[in-house]
Amino acid sequence: MEANSWSGTKRMRTSDKEREQVAEILRAAMAEGRLDLTEGEQRLAACYAATYRDELTPLTADLPGNGLWALAESPEVKKATRRGLRRHFNIVVSVAMILTGLWIISGAHFFWPAIPLAFLVMGLIRHARWGRYAYAQRVAPWNAPGYSGHQRFHSGHRGC
């Protein structure tokens, strides 16, 4: 009989969203020929039958980047990245217009909105360059399939 949270172990149950995320990675690997049809179907069946997160880890362990490359390149992630980038751009433009209006009203000689706008533009550039990777990992790293708490203690730094 498997131990669960009632008996004191710390295994974390997986959600439907996490199962679907791993299934998406497996489907992409099958489409690219990294997995043949038989092995891909076996892994998909195991993915949907998984109860705990640690059961999902071996399904993508031998894929490049544990399969996250597939999520970063999926059409859904690209669409979400463009939508988020468009929203971020609109916010930066709106703030720029407000700050420029305040500068005009203030009558200051120095264009002081340049300072906050520089930081806003740097954030926009960072979002444009790295945004798709953030969307690819839809859960926090410590909640992602395959993460185990002891990794932080073996990575060379001491825990709190």
From TrEMBL:
Keyword Nucleotide-binding attributed: no
Keyword Transmembrane helix recorded: yes
Annotated protein name in UniProt: DUF1707 domain-containing protein
Keywords tagged on the record: Membrane, Transmembrane, Transmembrane helix
Annotated transmembrane regions: 88-105, 111-128
Ranges for domain DUF1707: 12-64
Pfam families named among the record's database cross-references: DUF1707 (PF08044)
